[in-house]
Amino acid sequence: MLGLRWFEMSLNEVTSGTDDIGVTNKGNNRSCFRNPRGRKRFYQFYNNDNGSDVHTFYYRWSEDGKNWSANQEIDQDDVTSFANNIVFDVKIHDTGTLLDVYIVWFHEGSITYHYRKGTIGDTADTITLGTIRTIASSVSHSIAAPMSLAIARTDNARLVVGVCEDQTLHGKDYRDILLLTGSNDGDNPTWANETVVLDSSGSTNNEDNTPHLGLEAFDSSFGDRVLFYARIPQSTLPSSHSWAVWVYTWNGSSLTQETTYTDTGGGTTKGNPISVVIGSDDKVNLFVKGGGAASDHEKFGTAGSVTGSPTNTQIDSVVSGIMIGSMSINRTTNDLYIFYFETSLSNIKYKKSDDTTTSWSTTFEIPTDITITGISSSQRDQVGAIQLAVEE
C-alpha cells in the first residue's frame, strides 16, 4: 500500500537579497505530493520569476517523480523584488472518489490572499482548477519581508487559513497572526470569523521579521479541531525566534482556543525549521532546532491538545550553521521520519520512529549528489527549499 513521506530540504542558500533562509522559506519551497488514488502521479508546486518581475505560480505532474510535465499555471503576480516572491501552501484530501487540492497564496500585486480549489479525477493527470477566489483583500503589508500563510481542512470539512497582517503603531511596524474560517471546503466558501491569534505589537523585534506559519488538522476523534503553529520573532533577541502552538476548535459559530504552548528557552535560530506532525494517537509532534547546537523532537502527551510541557528528545547534538529539515509521517505504517540537512555537511540525514513513542533509530544518510531536473541554474537561485514525497 502506498505511503507518503514529506519533508522540506534546501537546494542552496538564498543568494538574492538575503542569506536568511527563514525569511523566504515558505515563498520558495516546492510543495509536493503523490496522489494516493487513480493514476498515482506526483505533483509539485513552485513559483518562478522567469528572469523578470513577473512571478508565475505553477504546478507540474510526473509519472515517475523524475520526468516532469510542462508548467501548469495557477496565477501570476507582478512583484519587484525577490523578497516578495509568491508565498503559498497546499493541502490535499481524498474524498473516496477523487482527490481535492486546496491552494492558498498571497498575491503581492493586489495585496490579496487568494484561494483556489482543484480536483484530480482517477483517470486524470492534470488538476482541474476552479476559479481564483479572494480570502482577504487590501491586506496591510508594510514590513519589508514576505508574508506567511497556511491552510488546513478539518475532518468535518471546514477550511481554516492562517495569515499575517501588518500594523503600524507609534512609528513602528508589527506583524499580527490571524485565523480565518471558510464556510465549507468547496470552490467558493465564505471567509469570516477573523481570530487574532497573536497581536505582536508588544515585540520590540518585529520590524523586518516574519513568522513562519503552519496548520494541521486532527482526525475524526477531534473532527472540528486544528493545530496552528508558528516560529515567531522573540521580543529581545534579534536573531532568535520562539516557537508556539495553538489548538483551536470550531464550535459552530467561531473558533475557540483550547490550549496553547510557547517555548522561549533560548529560541530557535532565525532561519531554522519548525515542522509538525499529528500522530495516529492524535498527539502533537514537533521538530525544531534550538538556539544552541541541538535539534529536538518535542512530543505532547495528551491527545488533541498541547497541554503541559512536551517531552524533549535530542535528534542530533552536533548541528552547526543553518539547518533545514522537516518531520513527516507514513500514514500506512504510522512511522515518523525526520529529515534534515546541515550547511556544514554534504549529506541529508534522517531518523525513524514509531509515532507513538519518543525512541528514534540510528542516523541514516542520503547522498545529495542528485540532479534536480527541470530547473536551470538561474532558476535554482530562486528556490530556497524543496519538499519531497517518497513512495513506500
List its traits.
disordered C terminus; Methylamine Dehydrogenase, Chain H; mainly beta; 392 residues; disordered N terminus; globular; 5-stranded antiparallel sheet
Please give a structural write-up.
- This protein is mainly beta and 392 residues long.
- It has a single domain, classed as 7 Propeller (Methylamine Dehydrogenase, Chain H), CATH 2.130.10.10.
- The chain has one helix and 27 strands.
- The chain has one helix spanning 377-380, and strands at residues 4-9, 31-34, 42-48, 54-62, 72-78, 87-94, 99-107, 112-120, 128-129, 133-136, 150-153, 159-169, 172-182, 191-198, 212-217, 225-233, 240-250, 255-269, 274-278, 284-289, 295-299, 311-316, 323-330, 335-342, 347-354, 364-367, 386-391.
- β8 and β9 form a beta hairpin.
- It is globular, with a radius of gyration of 19 Å.
- Mean pLDDT is 76; it is low at 1-29 and 369-392.
CATH homolog superfamily? YVTN repeat-like/Quinoprotein amine dehydrogenase
Structural class: mainly beta
Detail the poorly predicted runs: 1-29, 369-392
- What overall geometry do the principal axes of the alpha carbons give? globular
The CATH C-level name is Mainly Beta
Helix content: under 10%
Whole-number total of structural domains: 1
- Mean pLDDT metric: 76
Query: What would you call the quaternary organization?
Result: single chain
Query: What's the end-to-end separation, in Å?
Result: 8 Å
Number-wise, the strands total: 27
Order of helices and strands: EEEEEEEEEEEEEEEEEEEEEEEEEEHE
The name of the CATH architecture is: 7 Propeller
CATH fold type? Methylamine Dehydrogenase, Chain H
Number of helices: 1
